């Protein structure tokens, strides 16, 4: 296959098939863990690790997995990687692990990961599956970065922990954004903007 | 912890959908009408209780004594998937009435993060079996309340003049934000914190 069409596997995931804003999957952790830019990227990193691992392994064993039992096998592969990242975060990033909480083990039911295993990795080669995983992860990380940044800037006046707003704003920030309603509100606005920009094109 | 606090905390204060963001897929997926919301809520209540009992027993009788705690994620998801299939078969054969009302929702529940989330939270909070059951019931009732409230709002949104870019999901999210804002008012009710 030619290079440009392979590049498409990677590039599609970022904007055109963005898992969150276009496909509308994997919403729970997106809303729950985007309380600050750092936490949001931490969650995106955990999802990236599991997605790359599961896509590569599913693609490697796709020829020997019978179609009728593929879903349970995918789930076992995914939960293996989820368990690894669960223990790694617990050991090396305890502060981040406390913030992400139950959403780390819940990566196992994240529709993005099972969806890519089923829709892409089971029918494509290892390298293409890796590109697909990287693209979808990049698209996910982009949304997480935007959500986490906006919520942190509004609710705390900081970005990655650095003060980026005037002192008067930080004294009385828009606390609404750190609470659950703020997450729903922000993703609604983002989806509306994306709809407006892509009207008639996607 | 006080049993009433566990029940009310799971039901209102820490509502699984609006405060914890677990189980959003069915929340947005089936809340398009009140009828489907009720069916889904009943199915969630039913499966959540069973999943709580099975996962709690498995964890405390099998995984903990054998030192296999790290298998928790894999075991819970497979057991719940198997359990849902089994329940579906039993209902289909013996309880036709219940099957015709819950049947179509059961497969959707297999990878519902609300079910799996509750089984993990029961372990994380170190609940005993009774507390776990109360937590599951409270969570399922909270799920039902949120999804039914939201279905009523969405039925009205259908006929409202909304800009084309905001039709569908975007306005649904903003609506969910307002419902969630209302639930934020339950914070520290009965002294239960977020």
Key words describing this protein structure:
heterodimer; A: 202 residues; mainly alpha; two-stranded antiparallel ribbon; 9 helices; globular; B: 194 residues; 2 domains; 0% strand
Structural description of this entry:
The complex is a heterodimer of chains A (about 200) and B (about 190). With about 200 residues, chain A is mainly alpha-helical. Chain A has one domain (about 5-150). Chain A is built from nine helices and two strands. Chain A has helices at about 5-10, 25-30, 35-60, 70-90, 95-100, 110-120, 125-155, 165-170, 180-200, and strands spanning about 160, 160-165. Chain A has a two-stranded antiparallel ribbon with strand order 1-2. In chain A, a hairpin with a 2-residue loop joins β1 (about 160) and β2. In chain A, α1 (about 5-10) packs parallel to α7 (about 125-155), α3 packs antiparallel against α7 (about 125-155) and α4 packs across α6. The longest helix of chain A is centred in the last third of the chain and has 31 residues, at about 125-155. Chain A is globular and about 60 Å long. Chain A starts with a helix and ends with a helix. Chain B has two domains: about 35-160, no CATH class; about 160-195. Chain B has nine helices and no strands. The interface of A and B includes residues 75, 105 and 111 of A.
Main sheet attributes: strand count, strand direction, barrel closure of chain A = 2 strands, antiparallel
Strand content of chain A: under 5%
Distance between the termini of chain A: 25 Å
What is the average of the pLDDT values of chain A?
A: 90
Count structural domains of chain B.
2
Fraction in helix of chain B: over 70%
Structural category of chain B: mainly alpha
Average pLDDT figure of chain B: 86
Strand content of chain B: under 5%
Largest interface: A-B, 41 and 41 residues
Strand order of the largest sheet of chain A: 1-2
Identify the overall geometry of chain B.
Answer: globular
**Low-confidence parts of chain A, pLDDT < 50 over ≥5 residues?**
none
Give Rg of chain B in angstroms.
Answer: 18 Å
Oligomer: heterodimer
Number of spatially distinct domains of chain A: 1
Order of helices and strands of chain B: HHHHHHHHH
The percent of residues in helical segments of chain A reads 55-70%
- How many distinct beta strands of chain B? 0
Taking the alpha carbons of the first and last residues of chain B, their distance comes to 15 Å
Low-confidence stretches of chain B: none
